[in-house]
Write a structure and sequence with these properties.
This protein has about 110 residues and is mainly α. It contains five helices and no strands. About 65% of the residues lie in helices and about 0% in strands.
């Protein structure tokens, strides 16, 4: 499952950034799949949920994130959130549920094509 998810993400993001070679192949796919395998293995050993590539990275690429700085910024924010998680746990689910419903409803809007 992880393999298919990663390959789909690689192809989608590479196509979005015009990084496919002349045959439509992803350059350096072996290294990317190896990095994903290491992340999955280390995540499993540490007992976390599945560690995998995420297709949402295409959104970062679409707005100009192509150097890896967006990935480092995301990692920094996750590390920062790790220290704040005890505070976030004190917020009851009844307080966060309406916000999640609003975000879910906003996902149904027609995207802007301009």
């Amino acid at each position: 499952m992880d393999l298919f998810d990663t390959v789909g993400t690689l192809v989608g993001v590479a196509a979005k950034t015009n990084m496919l070679d002349e045959n439509g192949n992803v350059p350096r796919a072996k290294e990317a799949l190896f990095a994903d395998a290491i992340g999955t293995t280390v995540g499993a050993v540490l007992g976390t949920s599945t560690v995998t590539t995420y297709v949402e990275s295409a959104a970062g690429v679409a707005v100009g994130g192509r150097t890896g700085l967006t990935a480092l910024s995301t990692a920094a924010m996750f590390i920062f959130a790790l220290f704040l998680s005890p505070i976030f746990i004190m917020i009851p689910a009844a307080a966060t549920a309406p916000a999640l419903v609003i975000v879910g409803i906003s996902r149904f809007r027609k995207p802007c094509t301009s």
